[in-house]
Amino acid sequence: MNREIISGYRKASEKYADCGIDTDLIIDSLENTALSVHCWQADDVGGFENAQSGLEGSGLQVTGNYPGKPRAMDEFRDDLQKVFSLIPGHHRLSLHASYGDFSSGFPGRDKIAPEHFQSWIDWAKDQNLKIDFNSTFFAHPMVKNGYTLSGFDKDIRNYWIEHGKKCREISSFIGQNLNDCCIHNIWIPDGSKDITPSKMEHRTLLKDSLDRILEQPYPPEYMKDAVESKLFGIGSETFVAGSHEFYLGYAIRNNLILTLDIGHFHPTESVADKISAVYQYLDEVLLHVTRGLRWDSDHIVTLNDPVTELMQEIVWSGKLMNTHIGLDFFDATLNRIGAYVLGARNTQKALLQALLLPSDKLKELDRQENYFERLALLEEFKTMPFGAVWDYFCLKNNVPPGDGYIEEIRKYEKNVLMQRK
Ligand code: RNT
Ligand code: ZN
């Protein structure tokens, strides 16, 4: 098996070399590109606070009740460990604030502190992982009629401003302890189901709340802030305060990272096309790679056109080093670990395919205005032996190549997940 993979790789790399592509170099850059793996697929966006009010009013919905969901933090971590063992390369964990270690009691979102994330830091050190962070502005009784930072109620806004401040402090603490930059992402659900004449007021309030959250500077080597837009959510079909234009402007003005969740736009809108546009004004982008389907934004990533086109644009724009590749999907209808592994590996495969394109040649054809050959070359590369390179990449990183992860997941399901009653 291994020998077959190695000889398959040799043949493939000769083919790519004929087109001027060095597959060894590409494997290096794929290996050096970490995914920020979201913690919330593990338990259907549940978290570890006791007082859960579900996702109602958050614009999010998780469906399914597949057995084997982790019941406590240690099981949750076991599952994550299994996930990371099946994804080639070194990756990051994207934690939501609601996943703190509240074993000593949950103090309220406005009072969470670095200490609640100490055991995550210890675990991450042990696992050789870095951590990114997300404030949690949903699934909580203080979300009032769907509003948090942009609502009319001052007490509600102040509560969430406090939460945002605490999350930034925690992010910086994590970054300092792991000697790395922890990216703190802000997404709020705020919006309304129907026609909202006070959009201007809500957006002005949002701007003001964000200004207050971001007042305190932190060293950028330990933490940076990102803001995530959305076009609409479930129950906020007409109005979402944090729209793309709102956050694009806010990120540019305040020198923040812009989060592009590829499920947060109109279904025919290309997020790939935005890359070279927003990078004219921004230094860094955080992606939430996902699969939008009709009105829902959070299906498991497949190797589809939106993802491959996005990766191509990142590579062609020369912005791979500036782009943080986060995942964001949740599906409770199937094996949750399988969901993670598929989504992560497909994201990597899309990047690998993009890296394996003859970009210099394609750009030369651009300059020569030879549009037939440009398209023909792109089409020919769709049937190049990229699978052989992928398998070798897996082998090199000690994870199962091909479909070998399926058997691993089957075993874990039988021996671990199904034992949780
Ligand atoms: C919601 C956003 C956001 C969430 C997570 C759980 O539409 O995509 O990123 O999915 O914060
Ligand atoms: Zn997202």
Task: Tell me what the structure shows.
With 421 residues, the protein is α/β, with parallel strands linked by helices. It has one domain: TIM Barrel. The protein is built from 14 helices and twelve strands. The strands form three sheets. It has an eight-stranded parallel barrel with strand order 1-2-3-4-6-8-9-12, surrounded by four helices. Strand 10 and strand 11 form a beta hairpin. Helix 1 (2-18) crosses helix 13, helix 9 (305-316) crosses helix 10 and helix 11 (359-367) packs antiparallel against helix 12 (371-381). It is globular and about 65 Å long. 47% of the residues are buried. The mean pLDDT is 97. Zinc ion is lined by residues 187, 228, 261, 288, 328.
Strand and helix map with partners:
Layout: H1 2-18, H2 23-31, E1 35-38, H3 73-85, E2 92-96, H4 118-127, E3 130-134, H5 154-178, E4 182-186, E5 191-192, H6 199-213, E6 223-228, E7 239-240, H7 244-254, E8 257-261, H8 272-278, E9 285-289, E10 291-293, E11 296-299, H9 305-316, E12 323-327, H10 336-355, H11 359-367, H12 371-381, H13 386-396, H14 404-415
Parallel strand pairs: 1-2, 1-12, 2-3, 3-4, 4-6, 6-8, 8-9, 9-12
Antiparallel strand pairs: 5-7, 10-11
Helix pairs in contact: 1-13, 3-10, 5-6, 8-9, 9-10, 11-12
The protein binds L-rhamnitol (RNT) and zinc ion.
